[in-house]
Amino acid sequence: MRSVLASGAVALIAYALLYASPYGLRVLTVAGVYALAATGFQLVFGLAGALSLAHGAFFGVGAYATGILGSQLGWSFPATFPVSLALPVLLALLVGLPVLRLESHYFALATLGIAQVVLLLAVNTPDLTGGANGLAGVPGIAAFGATLPRGLPLAAAVWAIVALGGLLAWRLARGRWGRALTLLRDDPLAAAALGLDVGRLRLQAFALSALYAGAAGALAVHTQRVVSPEVLEFPVMVSILTIAVVGGRGRVAGAVLGALLLIHLPEWFRFLERSYLILYGGALLAAIVLAPHGLTGLLERLLPPKPRPPPAPLPLPAPAVADGPVLRVEGLAKAFGGVRAVDGVSFTLQSSRITGLIGPNGSGKTTVINLLSGLERPDAGRVDLLGRDLSGARADRIARAGIARTFQSAGLPEDSTVLEAVAAARLERDASIATAEAHALSVLARLGVADRARERCGTLPAGLRRRVELARALARQPRVLLLDEPAAGLTDAEKAELSGHLRAIAADGVAVLVVEHDMGFLLPLADRVLALDQGRVLYDGAPAGVPHDPAVVEAYLGAPA
Amino acid sequence: MTILQLTLNGLALGAAYALVALGFVLVLNAAGAVNFAHGDLVMAGGMLAVALAPHITSFWPAPGLALLPLVLVLMAALGLAVSWLAYLPLRGRPHVSVFISTIAVGIILQNGANALFGGEPRAAPPLLWGGTVALGPLVVSVQSLAILAVAALLIGAQQWVFARTQIGRRLRATAQDPEMARACGIPVTAMILATFALGTAYAGAAGLLLANQFFVTPTAGGDLILKAYIAVTIGGWGSVPGAVVGALLIALFEVGVSAVLSYPVALGALYATLLVILVARPQGLFGEAARRRA
Known about the structure:
The complex is a heterodimer. By secondary structure, chain A is of the alpha/beta class. Chain A folds into two domains: 25-302, ABC transporter involved in vitamin B12 uptake, BtuC; 325-557, P-loop containing nucleotide triphosphate hydrolases (Rossmann fold). In chain A, 55% of the residues lie in helices and 12% in strands. Chain A has helices spanning 2-19, 22-47, 55-72, 77-99, 104-124, 126-129, 152-174, 176-186, 188-193, 198-224, 234-247, 252-268, 277-290, 294-302, 365-373, 395-401, 418-423, 433-446, 462-474, 492-507, 519-525, 550-557; strands at residues 135-136, 142-143, 146-147, 226-227, 325-336, 339-350, 354-358, 380-385, 388-389, 403-405, 480-484, 511-515, 528-533, 536-541. In chain A, a hairpin with a 2-residue loop joins strand 8 (380-385) and strand 9. Chain B has one domain.
């Protein structure tokens, strides 16, 4: 794969140097501009999964910054280019804070609204922007008294910036940051539960994408020497989106391949004239339906990358822990509408102890776990972890403080390998992906599933998926481990094995809370049992007392006739 | 008096927007997907009317009225084609896939229209005839009254079919809970396709109605999809009556602000209002259940 891309790059350079006409070089330059813009789009849309329809607007803002400063004030490239980078980033930070909280289609709508407002402003403030006609007389790329001539030098300069930006984006995408973004794209709740600050990561991706778009916009007007509202219109956005999807979502190589292909496509279909975007529509539709991973995905299927050798397992250092209370919960309460799902629950989890949490369906068990892990905000109550107040804190802060959880419906990313999924838990702690994977492998080995590290999570049987999820939570090195029905769907043999693992985990000093329906599994395992009914604690004591407690029996079986 | 006049103009525009928003929200509910091409389908309906008009005028006194059933049927067929191409292959994929595939359909429609008709604004024939009538002190264009009547008829028909007929019950069941509907033996896929056909037919009717007074250009769809989206956001995501009310509000706002200031200001203010609503109420005005069962 890599050698194919390298020979492609060599062929491209040879074409530019030896065969390309002046017009061909111009098209190549435009392709470079779009490759840069699409590379930025890969960060926010491909990796972070946010369909930002403001990307064209950031491109346009960068274009106008260079256009206005260059043509009206006579500034040259070293002064205008930084402004074209900074303005879109500022705009992104300004609108990103509120807008990035929105769910998928609302985010797309809001960013489209932003784009339309920017376009309206550009058209209707002729004193600043030249209105619908735009501004002519934008200088070329000039520095230190010399202007870069059109043709090969300009094409080379643009592609040099593409190479630089592409390399940076590629390194970011492959590293911890890129992994974290794909994790929050696929499952924001799980990402937060693994200690990742979802809001900040999204904002970083949004702002960085704006930087790329602004740079591309600036280069576009240096190439065209004119800036007009065209740079803000929907076709720019559509082209970037099409390039990213056809090239391959989330891939820098995809952005470059897609841009080269799609910017040249209209040249091969000259008879369509200004309606060439029909081709883009067709290509976009065909790609999303037939090849959702785009050209790079197809290439990868033809030339599968060699599997990397597995890392050497690196055991996690065992934290020094003292006996005693770890998590104190007092008066925890949460209502949904009029229903009091959790109604004044108090308990304490001790280090090295397993506490069972039982109760009929709808008694509030999962809500307790969601409140403790920060997926829901409590209405009232105090949560205190080793003297640290975590009441009402965000999920990622709680996770970083030392509480880990699993989900009832196992939340592993289908397409990731087991090793990647577990290493995700270490992204926020370890310095590199290699270290994260080495740590992850040692946790998998501890739970006896290291031999499955290379398999995709989506192909695992239910029992193993639960084991991998447990490994992911354990890789957090938590002080408190919250497990939501870990034995559901397991065979008796698997349950026995799970009990053994949970005892070993607790013996290392972890305070374990297990929500479970299966009493045959839970009662022998737990040191203590809490029973909930209608959001209140009915019973708090030894497991042996549970079957004989009249209140618990009544809650499960209904009032005696 | 001006206020009354403006209100009437706003209501006529709002009636056409309501047809757009209604088609959008019906598809949203049934397919669970945002049809981004919806605005371009409105444009396509207008262009279709423009293209068919010369063939009708020669033997019919009210060409617009004769065009209406023709546009409804042809657009319904286009709706089926769109769902077959851009929705059915992507069921079970992430929602964003349908969003992108319908963006693609929109691009094709927009540039197809540009290739066939050019970029200049074009007008469809009026529904009945041009000119105005005096209603007491008000001077009202016949087309405005006709828009109100046709929109009321079409929206009323949709309400009646959904409330009173067997197929309407099936369509509603599909929109409410596709899994449950399938378990009850309702042919869910056929119902979704029927909804696409209906929603697109209504979009086409709106295109025909709008293309007389307001003209139609190949790029008209972009603003229309945003307005449909805003109507649905104001009215409560997924609420059918809410979408109609939202559309009327948007049109009144647009006509009012345009009269006092200008159309670009009205449009800018509308989008800015949308951003404020979205930011103040991130789940839409009436909230959307998006919590995962953890």
